[in-house]
Amino acid sequence: MLQNPFKSYGIIAVYFFSSAVIIAMLIGIVIAVSYSGTSSEIASNTSFYQQRLLNELSKKMSTSLIGIEQTSGTSAKNVDLLYGRLRDKDAYERLQIETDLQSQLKYLVFGTPILQSIHVYSDYPFTSDTQGPVTFFPMSQLDKEAWYPSILETDSAWLGEHKIMSNGREESVISFARKVINNSNQYYSLMVFNIKVSSIRHLISTEDDTTNMALLDAAGRLITHAGNSSKLQQATLTLKGEMDKPSGSLRVQDDFFVWAKSPDSQWTLFEASSWSDMTKGSKSMAKLFLLLGATTIVLVLLLTLFLSRRFMRPMNQLIRAMGQYSPGDDQGLPTDYKNEFGKLFHGYRKLTQRIEDLYESLREQHVQQRAAELKSLQMMINPHFLYNTLDQINWTAIEAGQNKISSMLAQVASMFRLALSNTNSLVAVTEEVAHIDHYLKFQQVRWEDKMSYLIKVDENCKSCLMPKIFLQPFVENAFMHGFHGASEAEIGIDIYRKENDLYVTITDNGKGLSENWQNKPRKRGGYGLRNVKERLDALFGNQYSLQLSNREQGGVQVEIRFPLSDS
């Protein structure tokens, strides 16, 4: 179970550490909110400006790449027209047509800056310079090209970055392949327009070559890139399925991606940035806040420690005075405090004065108690004298053959013994029942068989407490008033409990109560019932009830209820 620190530890420690924790939490929250807000703002601004940049780049690239696609379509139609004439003409005309076709394609390469070369795959045995911008290959060469499967199911497609031989060395290009189809819808030639990768990278890279940017086709395949190749390849897999919108951004751990699609959704440009590099300034600001916060915490804690010591000095003086208190000694508490501490010192001085007065009063009470104890010891002789006297009279009655008198004396002696042996105001139900039983047996000796009684006590209330000599006044009134002049007498006593109350019912078959019996003046008697009421008032206040009423079959019924008490 956790302990309450305000009850277990010193005030200085609680005040000091609680202040430190609260201040540290507040500064931490400020730093966290500032860092989070700054990072979000950086991400939002970066995403916004990068998307604008990518949109501009996408437009430029779209102009160039769409131009390549349109040019390829025109070239494919020209090739189809000239290709048909190659089959029907003589050798001279075929050579002239072949020369015209190569000239057109070369003119196209030289007229388009981003084009590196054009490769034409055909069954016609063209002759060409392998070092020139236009190269012819047989159709059988296609099976050796790694990119060929991507063009099998379509008429045209963009091919990802790959290597070709140019002027005796390998060069990286991206290509657009278009099939040449005749009027019979037969595919018989393939034109591949190779674009310089350096031209594309020049568009998507920065001067310091720190940009990680990639170009994807409509199927999400990587066409070319600028920057970290492995990182962009992994990013392509990560963003697959995320780039459905024309533009957007996504953060994955330390990578921040921004993308933008071309207006016709044929290409997607995306850029990968380092989140830690983007938020470097924000982290520096957070560190500055942290340093300022730590300095503030130290200064506040020093101030808190100083103030707590100043506040606790008078409290320590009071605690020390309380620990060293001895009646009659001067505590030496300061008297120049005018605030709450001054009230505490004044109250403590009044308290010690009151304690000293109580000590003096206790000394006087001790003297009086010693005198009362001696007097009590002397008075204890009287009950023993009474027991011995009754015992002597009883033996005299036995010797004289007065058995009734002997029996009555024995019951009276038992009654006195129970009444005088316990000085408590409340006794167990069993003890009170034993006392009234002796009294009823005493009366039964006098009445003989003309008198009967029945006492019923529930088992669950025998250990409960009730007022001492509580039943006798009611039973005694029955014999003195109810049975006066009667030929027989019956007494019933029932004691039981309900919930948290004890109930006592006393019935007799006597004359009953006269009208207005409570208001009639009495020349004698009546003290027993009044004594019972006063005792009940003193013991239970207004939590008891006492009712006397006449019974329909004759006699009186007494009903008493008071709170339950267990011994």
Automatic annotation (TrEMBL):
Coiled coil: none annotated. GO terms for molecular function: protein histidine kinase activity. Its EC number is 2.7.13.3. Its main location: membrane. Residues 309-360 form the HAMP domain. SMART domains: HAMP. The chain crosses the membrane at residues 12-35, 288-307. The keyword Membrane applies. It is found in: Cell membrane. InterPro entries: Bact_2-comp_sensor_kinase, HAMP_dom, HATPase_C_sf, HATPase_dom, Sig_transdc_His_kin_internal. Keywords: Cell membrane, Kinase, Membrane, Phosphoprotein, Transferase, Transmembrane, Transmembrane helix. It is a multi-pass membrane protein. Pfam families: HATPase_c, His_kinase. It is an enzyme of class 2 (transferase). This is Two-component system sensor histidine kinase YesM. It comes from Paenibacillus qinlingensis.
